[in-house]
Amino acid sequence: MDLGITIIGTICVALCAIPFIITNRTRAKKKKELLLALRNVAEQHQGKVTEYEICGNYAIGVDKVKNTVSFVSSKDDVLESQFADLTTIRNCEIVKNTRLNANKSEVIDQLSLKLTAANTNESNIILEFYNAQVSFQFSGEIASIEKWNKLINGLLTNMVK
Description:
By secondary structure, this protein is an alpha+beta fold. The chain has one domain (about 1-160). The chain has two helices and seven strands; from the N terminus they run αβββββββα. The strands form two sheets. Strands 1-2-3-4 form a four-stranded antiparallel beta sheet, with helices on both faces. A three-stranded antiparallel beta sheet has the order 5-6-7, covered by helices on one side. The longest helix has about 45 residues, at about 1-45.
């Protein structure tokens, strides 16, 4: 009887652990894919990623030697990539699209980094860190966007000197 209870207990623990194991492996695989795509974007522009971050559905990285930014986001299992040469960028700023909910409190619908082109004939580059229609909950995007805004503006300032 004790052996039967032990076997049943072991099976129950295994069944409870399987979803966590599968979720963890899926998340690790997704991060690996984002990093590989990020490095590929940088390499396509004869650069490399010297510093990067993977958060939620996106990966962002810079090449501090060539002053470039690479960005990859995943929406509905489709990877979208963007690249910016900071020598063609005037400034970087956080763009936050908000609305008021029924309780009159502010809700963030979209959080992006806007890289403003130095040449007014060129279009600005928008790097979307968060979209409420894709992710319903924040997972570090606010701290991440503030970090990258500061880092990119620091690189822009150092280039001017």
